[in-house]
Amino acid sequence: MPRLTSPPMLLGALLLACSSLRAAPAPWYYWSHATSPQKVCAQTAPGPGWVQDSPPFAGPGCQRPLRPPLP
Fold first, then answer.
1. What are residue 10's phi and psi, to 5 degrees?
2. Where are the stretches annotated Disordered (predicted)?
3. Of the candidates 41, 37, 39, which has an alpha carbon nearest to the alpha carbon of residue 29?
4. pLDDT of the residue at 22
5. Per-10-residue mean pLDDT, the chain, length 71
């Protein structure tokens, strides 16, 4: 079993920790049903027959437009 204090293992752990700092929640969208006037706000399509109908939003309720991520 490799030692957890070896330089490659430490570097790998550091890279993994840094990459997770940029993680963000999934955006929310309005979805329209193809054959009815229904519209819902969700992160993914509620099922078959639903079409994405908006730009991304920052949270449930689709109230705040999502800002582009920082570089």
1. -65, -40
2. 52-71
3. 41
4. 67
5. 63 68 84 94 95 93 84 69
